[in-house]
Amino acid sequence: MSLFTACSDDDDDKVVCPVPQTEFTVATGLNLTYNGGTMLGKKVTFTPDASDATKATLVLAGNLDLSGILTREAASGSFGAGVFPGSPVVTLPVTLNIQGDECSFSGTSETDYCTFDYAGKVTASSLKLDLTNVALKNSALSGTTWVPTPLNSDYTEEPIHLIWESNKNPGWGLQIQTILRMPLIDAGGDDKVNVEDMLCSVLHDITLGADGNISASYVDAAQGGTSVVKTPANVAQYVVLSDTQMKVYLNLDAIIANVKRLGSSTKAIDMSEILSQAVTSLLPLVTDGVPLTYEKNEGKLKAYLNTDLLLPLMKNIVAPLFSDEEFVNMLIEAMKADPDFGSMAGMAEGMLKGLPEIINETTRLEVGLNLTAAK
Asked: Which helix (H) or strand (E) holds 206?
């Protein structure tokens, strides 16, 4: 009596993930949404598990392009605010459902500041990732809408929070506040308004969403618009850190493009060195968020950049800029040529030339907004 046994190679039945390790961006097949809104300027790296084909990790990070502004070595890193506010990089383990050349996944997770659901599909050439039910863990400001506080007749209330105290010129801050209140901006016809009134007419409201998004409605007067429009989704985000501190995260792709155009059109001085210094100094704020001090009390919200943040930036960027005689002369000539500001050119010359010393002697500097709860 003979016994015959037939065996097949175990490798023939081994499950293999059809997608290799791949970095996805908008340019390479990434379709990322955050609570229903498309999110740009990010990258997601898919990495399959080496020992289990049904497991993988997604690394979500910012993807700000700084080529041409920083050196090639500096620009090769990952910069920009992360997908979730407060988290520059998030590693998300997922379980894969493999069907042919496509893998799908879904689940619930959290970061230090948010909870969220996720669902997605990935192939070798594309990744679709939908982040839904995103909600901040600290909801102290969630779902609130604010309007700029109007400037009243006795100046006890105003939309701009500005304090500038310097040992060189203690009245410097007051002089700037006075200039902000002067009717210098053309409002059509023979009417002129001040900076603070213009701010109130342009900026209608700011909403701090429960998902960490900041949205605003405004009039795009610079482009000749007259109707109220809303900012696109996922352009700015925030997290609340404590009863007095928060951070704001911005998508700076468009801002950097505008600064580069400014540099190419300015002939009086070389903007490239200044721009590089500015980006280098501001880069940590882009990725890690801009810290704001805030005060919330009886329907009022004051949010501002404080001295610890502003003064080093003023000393490292603004003071050297205004130490350049050509740059100051360029500004003065531009003011003289402007019918609204020509009369101020003489007064401004001394202020501008004295600015580096005033900055170096500054003891307190705060800039921000005074807001009132929308009705």
From this structure: strand 203-208
Which tokens sit at 186? 């053309």
The answer to whether residues 214 and 208 touch, using CB atoms and an 8 Å cutoff, is: yes
The answer to whether 208 touches 215, Cβ cutoff 8 Å, is no
Judge whether 148 and 371 are in contact, CB under 8 Å: yes
CA angle 183, 185, 187 (to 5 degrees): 105
From 17, 23, 13, select the one nearest 48 (Cα to Cα).
17
> Which 3 state secondary structure label does DSSP give 136?
strand
Could you tell me which residues are beta bridge partners of residue 205?
217
Question: What are the tens digits of pLDDT across the range 181-229?
Answer: 777 676 666 677 888 888 888 999 999 999 999 999 998 766 666 788 8
How far, rounded to the nearest angstrom, does the alpha carbon of residue 76 sit from its chain's CA centroid? 20
Instruction: Calculate ∠ Cα 75-79-82, nearest 5°.
Output: 165
208 closest CA partner among 296, 286, 309: 296
- Gyration radius from the chain CA atoms: 26
Buried/exposed 1-20: b ≥16 CB within 10 Å, e otherwise: eeeeeeeeeeeeeeeebbbe
CA pair distance 233, 218, nearest whole angstrom? 14
| CA distance linking residue 175 with residue 268, whole number of Å | 28
Give the model's confidence band at 11: pLDDT under 50 very low, under 70 low, under 90 confident, else very high.
low
Residue with tokens 């209330």: 157
Using N-to-C axis directions, what is the helix angle for 172-180 and 195-202, rounded to 10°?
50
